[in-house]
Design a protein that fits this description.
Blueprint lengths: L8 H9 L5 H14 L3 H4 E4 L1 H16 L11 E5 L26 H8 L3 E6 L19 E2 L2 E5 L5 H8 L5 E6 L5 H6 L3 E4 L19 E6 L2 H12 L16 E5 L9 H16 L3 E5 L5 H25 L6 H8 L6 H22 L4 E5 L8 H6 L1 H21 L3 E5 L6 E5 L5 H15 L1
Helix pairs in contact: 2-4, 5-8, 8-15, 10-11, 10-12
Pfam families: Amidase
Protein name: Amidase domain-containing protein
GO molecular function: catalytic activity
Amino acid sequence: MMGWTSWSASDLGRGIGRGEIDPEALAQVFLDAIAAHPDRDRIYARVTPERALAEARAAGLRAKVGRRLSLLDGVPVSWKDLFDTAGVATEAGSALLKGRVPERDADVLRTASAMGLVCLGKTHMSELAFSGLGLNPVTASAPCVNDPEAVSGGSSSGAAASVAFGLAAAAVGSDTGGSVRIPAGWNDLVGLKTTSGLLSLSGVVPLAAKFDTVGPLTRTVEDSAQMLAALLGIGAMDTGGVPDLRGRRFGALQTIVMEDLREGPAAAYEGALERLRAAGAVIEPVEAPEIVGPMGDAPVLYTAEAWGTWRDVIEAHPERMFAPIRERFEGGRAFSGADYVAAWQRLDAARAVWAGHMAGYDAVLCPTAPNLPPKVDRLMEQGEYYVTENLLTLRNTRVGNLMGGAAMTLPTGVPSCGLQLLGQVGGEAQLLRLALSVEAALR
């Protein structure tokens, strides 16, 4: 049992398949680790030990008779607290939803459970998922694995912390503007943003449904691929053999994403590019002027939909919200329906240009975040700093959401500095295969 909490999810799954790991004992090891962790209440909103042990016992019985459902059958994972869980509160980090208990699991949770994943519980998050920082004084702010005084990134803050601190083998989060990739990047994990519509949002508390996506936070690219397979209801994804990077073409995005880089992320990014070149990759600087308009339109594209979704609930009890989050929602009041429609028309046009422009590259690269995790105390004391740091944090990842394709962050080896890979719409399988090679080059 020693060391199981630091193993990759895939290695745990293989250990179960070989009969070397009993799933119930594995689940208990993780439950004990959660109970003993000093920051457990900042990471987990609710733990579900009865469900976890029952699911693990069933996984153990299947393993004994050779009827495993997937590579990850019996592996314990955490779920962000916006995925509905039958009979267990799902509050999306907000007092507005306090006591909300769904009657059924979210579709993706049901699918993952049908593939044998073991649900450890629900993790803390930014309020209603509308922040990239992970600061949440209403419920809890999960710590960053590299700096206990800093935020962990959001909005899937507890999801990242649960994996980084060894309290889950993998986690499931959501990404609307960077909410999987930012906390993954700041906690030295792999984070995958899936293409919009690939995974069901039924039973997922919405922020801006036209941008909301579901994605895993994991220790390795292989784990990311196997988690995606489980979320899709596929037993396993082929990750055998690491493709060669020689001759692979990458575009190093210059437009917007390289502005105002802090020293640490800038150095980590250049170091990552050097290692990819050393492995044989071809990297070319690329401008993408088509993203400038949509990046400027982001306030109307995001806040108009978010305000339209939550206006009545927020106006009924505005005092229950953390003021900077509430004010961000209220920014949606400034836009008309005509503003929103026109912004989407411009975005659709830009997406078409981007797809053609980037078709010649295996992936487009940029730093995951321009900055490092800010200190909690400073965010709480300086209102304007919170706003500017939040917007800067989400700037680079937002490119992936606006352009609509699959996107990933991988650790660079420098603490809290990730490398972002932007892929094509529906290009998860290709991006994951490529990421295996990038991961190997960055080690």
